[in-house]
Amino acid sequence: MRIGEGEHQYHWEDRWSKIPDSAAKDPGWAHDGMAVTENGNILTCHSGDPTMMLLDPAGNVIKSWPVDLADAHGITVVPENGEELLWIADNGRKRSGDLGYEYPEGGAKGQVLKMDFVGNVLMPLERPELPVYEEGMYSPT
């Protein structure tokens, strides 16, 4: 299938990646970010399990590591002191197919984390102390 318009047309590869299945996986409602490393590998988060994955351009998993987050909604790779590091925006919640794709009730822990490619959290950004978050949920994206 081709998507896009004009000069910006792309061929859609439906099952490009070889991401392992999971009992929690809901392939119809993944909303995880992706980022490309300096050497062309792709970073993303498993759509069902809290696991970051580094994929090669052919979609093979090179390595993976567990992370304490609900959904890696935004992922950015940054160079720092000769090393690539990650910034991840976790909105703290994930929609559920069992709830008609609504968010489940209960507390959510939105967070922004800086980490390395093995899962060490190098710096968390705390929820801003702003009036808007006193009663509302902090949900960075």
Describe this structure in words.
The protein is mainly beta and 141 residues long. The chain has a domain at 31-126: Lipocalin, CATH 2.40.128. It has 1 helix and 10 strands. The protein has one helix spanning 132-135, and strands at residues 2-5, 8-11, 34-36, 42-45, 51-55, 61-66, 72-80, 83-90, 111-115, 121-125. The strands form 3 sheets. Strands 3-4-5-6 form a 4-stranded antiparallel β-sheet, with no helix packed on it. It is globular and about 45 Å long. The protein starts with a strand and ends in a 6-residue tail after the last helix. The mean pLDDT is 84.
What's the arrangement of secondary structure elements?
Layout: E1 2-5, E2 8-11, E3 34-36, E4 42-45, E5 51-55, E6 61-66, E7 72-80, E8 83-90, E9 111-115, E10 121-125, H1 132-135
Antiparallel strand pairs: 1-2, 3-4, 4-5, 5-6, 7-8, 8-9, 9-10
In short:
The chain has 141 residues and is mostly beta strands.
Give descriptors for this structure.
single chain, 141 residues, mainly beta, Lipocalin, four-stranded antiparallel sheet, 10 strands, 3% helix, 38% strand, globular
Question: What percent of the residues sit in helical stretches (DSSP H or I)?
Answer: under 10%
- List low-confidence stretches: none
Count up the helices: 1
Number of strands: 10
Overall 3D shape: globular
N-to-C series of helices and strands: EEEEEEEEEEH
Structural class based on helices, strands and sheet pairing? mainly beta
Largest sheet: 4 strands, antiparallel
Please report the first level of CATH classification, the CATH class of the domain at 31-126: Mainly Beta
The overall average pLDDT, rounded, is 84
What is CATH's topology name of the domain at 31-126?
Lipocalin
- Note the beta-strand portion: 35-45%
Identify the strand order in the major beta sheet: 3-4-5-6
CATH architecture name of the domain at 31-126 = Beta Barrel
The gyration radius over C-alpha positions equals 16 Å
**N-C termini distance:** 29 Å
